[in-house]
Amino acid sequence: MEYSSLLKPTENLENLERQLMCPICLEVFSKPVVILPCQHNLCRKCANDVFQAANPFMVTRGNTVTSGGRFRGPLKTHRVIIDFFNTTNIQQLSRVNSALCLSRAVENHRPVKKVDHPMCVEHAEEKINIFCLTCSMPTCSLCKVFGAHKDCQVAPLGSVYKSHKNDLSDSISRLVASNDRVQLMISEMEHSCKVIDENSRVQKQMLCEQFDGVYAALEERKQEMLMVISQEQEDKNQHVRDLIKQYNEHLQSASKLVETAFQAMEEPEAAAFLQSASALQKSVVDATKGSDMPKMEMGYENMNHFLVDLDNVQEAVRGIDFGKDAEDEDEEEDEEGEEVAESEEGNSDSSD
């Protein structure tokens, strides 16, 4: 900060010296004159010497006719033509076409695009300066006086410009507000999509849990009924196995009795045969009566009584739908309400 404050006065002095310096002799001005349109100064002697030396057409001591001088500008390398006839009229210079030092004056500025004033289509040399309210278009004064808009109502461009600008500003404000509402609606709809996805996920999870519960209940009931069938199967098989055992025991006993009877039939002695014949005869008769042993009932092996009709259940499962329970409950409540109303009406009639 201290160094910068010390340097600023030095810079100001340098700028001042530069402004008071003649661009020809590089010394402080001596009798400065203004001869350039850029308002730069020159020493009178320097200007005279430069134009006399650089102009071959100037009137010299040898009576040569001159028409002007040429030299390089003091700050930029632009050439400036200055027409004069002698050094006495150096103050009366003609206008110079070249704008000396103009580039330095604007070198730190950004160029601005030139905006041409719109011209009338019908009158190329006339600028558009009024607005036709009847035709809603800008036009020129000649069109109002002599042209196609002479019978129309017109207004100055400034007032119409302000009015249209205000209208456009209001329309822009309304459009921006409308865009904000649309953006808000879009945000709400995007939020609705997220809510729909979340609600769908919850409902799917609940539906899967309900069906899983139904599956579990069906599986549990199936296992219970299978156990009933299995139990009866075991009981019947056990009963049949008991009968088979009894029949096997009876068969073995009968086989032994047959073998004993055959041995008795081979006895040659009558006395010995008769001693065992009566008892053997009685045993054979009793064994023959053993054919009246318990038998299986007709169709004992049949298991058709375990048939289950699940057609109604399947139809009920296929008929499962959303909201059915609530509708059925509402219908039942309506029917109950109607029945109560009818019973009350019947009671009132009977009391009368």
Structural features, described:
This protein is mainly alpha-helical and 352 residues long. The chain folds into 2 domains: 2-106, 2-Layer Sandwich (Herpes Virus-1); 174-319. It contains 8 helices and 7 strands, in the order H-E-E-H-E-E-H-E-E-H-E-H-H-H-H. A 3-stranded antiparallel sheet has the order 6-5-7. A two-stranded antiparallel sheet has the order 1-2. A hairpin with a 6-residue loop joins strand 3 and strand 4. Helix 5 runs antiparallel to helix 6 (270-289). The model is unreliable at 1-7 and 57-106 (pLDDT under 50).
Architecture blueprint of SSEs:
Layout: H1 2-19, E1 32-34, E2 41-43, H2 44-54, E3 69-72, E4 79-82, H3 102-106, E5 130-132, E6 137-139, H4 141-145, E7 154-156, H5 157-265, H6 270-289, H7 311-318, H8 324-351
Antiparallel strand pairs: 1-2, 3-4, 5-6, 5-7
TL;DR of this structure?
The chain has 352 residues and is mostly helical. It has helices at residues 2-19, 44-54, 102-106, 141-145, 157-265, 270-289, 311-318, 324-351, and strands at 32-34, 41-43, 69-72, 79-82, 130-132, 137-139, 154-156.
